[in-house]
Amino acid sequence: MDLIVDILSTPAILVGLFALIGLLLQKRAATEVVSGTLKTIMGFLIIGAGATVITGSLYFFGKMLEKGFDIDGVIPNNEAIVAMAQNAFGTETALIMLLGMIINILLARFTPFKYIFLTGHHIMFMACLLAVVLSTGGLDGAALIIIGSIILGLLMVLSPALLQPFVRRITGNDDIAIGHFGSFGYWVAGLVGKGAGNRAKSTEDIRVPRSLGFLRDTSVAISLTMLVMFFIVSIAAGPAYIENELSGGQNFIVFCLIQAITFAAGVYIVLAGVRLLLAEIIPAFKGVADKVVPHAKPALDVPVVFPFAPNAVIIGFIFSFLGGIISMFLLPLFGLKVIVPGLVPHFFCGATAGVFGNATGGRRGAMLGAFVNGILISFLPALLLPVLGDLGFEGTTFGDTDFAIVGIFLGYLMKLFM
């Protein structure tokens, strides 16, 4: 069972398997099958390597922020709560994952929702949430697994379907979809952009004076933006704290400079991985689409949209984070616990919301859409906290919008049967 969970929850292996099946169904030469499969896995691993570099840089930024502004509260962390729940619901989670994926393929084969959800770790997180929440209504054994699998399978086709009109606008084609359980936030960002922005004024058309022509290079622009942000929080945290606790004695200015450029290097790596992945997975997936699920589309993790609007990525991150900061002060006014803005979810979800907002509303759409996403990933996890607290998981919560919505809805629904 552990082997199945490890395979199904490792996106690189999962996507590689689908690429392998697709290439075999097309009866490609052995060299093409081996090359296409390995490059697909490699593309996903490169994305993961870039994400690790970004996360490492943001870890130091977060520490400076907490120290400089004396921030205290709950930090949403999907991995933490899943690790806690696995001890009690490990078997149920694995079976819901496996059956949920089979139901996903069946729904894609026999309904108009032609999406194969390939973001393995999010499938595992959702399966875990379903196992925990459904158990509170008295469900166990086969009933819990079957109902959880059906809900998961439905979410795996409905979530990409919700976003696909926006994805077509972002990519200019219908070849890929988004498989990520932050979809409600991206959908709202797209709507906000559509209602409040102007699509003609794209973030990618921002005019830069000739003297500042170096800013047209995305990597340089991200480095300078992050450098400004690092310097602001470093001054608030104090040079002594940085040099004694974070940098190992390195001067705080040098440390901030290196971390800012490290962050930009991580984004560069992610974009390189996305380009490699898309070049391999789309032709390979044609075999699955032709033979098993006609017209099927791979629903992939959110970084696949980053190359289509690199400026919107950094704008989305900044405005989502701003929404998180403002929410931090508003939450106590509603009697809710403070949610500390997690820089990793605000980067990946905020950047994606920025791309969606830009696709429908240009610069204003990217800013407002990402800002609203920042508020959503602050308030929704706070509203989920009491539900999880009742289940014995006090002090931690999921960070992405869909987990919160599903958890809150099913949590209160199950109480009716208790």
- Roughly how many Å apart are the termini? 31 Å
Query: Widest sheet: strand order?
Result: 1-3-2
Order of helices and strands: HHHHEHHEHHHHEHHH
Q: Gyration radius, to the nearest Å?
A: 21 Å
Fraction of residues in helix? over 70%
Note the total helix count: 13
Structure, described:
The longest helix has 48 residues, at 343-390. This protein is 74% helix and 2% strand. The model has no long low-confidence stretch (mean pLDDT 85). It has a three-stranded parallel β-sheet with strand order 1-3-2. The radius of gyration is 21 Å and the shape is globular. The chain starts with a helix and ends with a helix. With 418 residues, the chain is mainly alpha-helical. The protein has helices at residues 2-8, 11-25, 30-69, 78-110, 120-135, 141-171, 183-196, 218-237, 239-246, 252-291, 310-330, 343-390, 401-415, and strands spanning 115-117, 177-178, 297-300.
Write a concise keyword list for the protein shown above.
418 residues; mainly alpha; 3-stranded parallel β-sheet; 13 helices; 3 strands; globular
Summarize the structure.
The protein contains 13 helices and three strands.
Walk me through the topology.
Elements: H1 2-8, H2 11-25, H3 30-69, H4 78-110, E1 115-117, H5 120-135, H6 141-171, E2 177-178, H7 183-196, H8 218-237, H9 239-246, H10 252-291, E3 297-300, H11 310-330, H12 343-390, H13 401-415
Parallel strand pairs: 1-3, 2-3
Helix pairs in contact: 2-3, 2-10, 3-8, 3-10, 4-5, 4-6, 5-6, 5-13, 6-7, 6-12, 7-12, 8-10, 11-12, 12-13
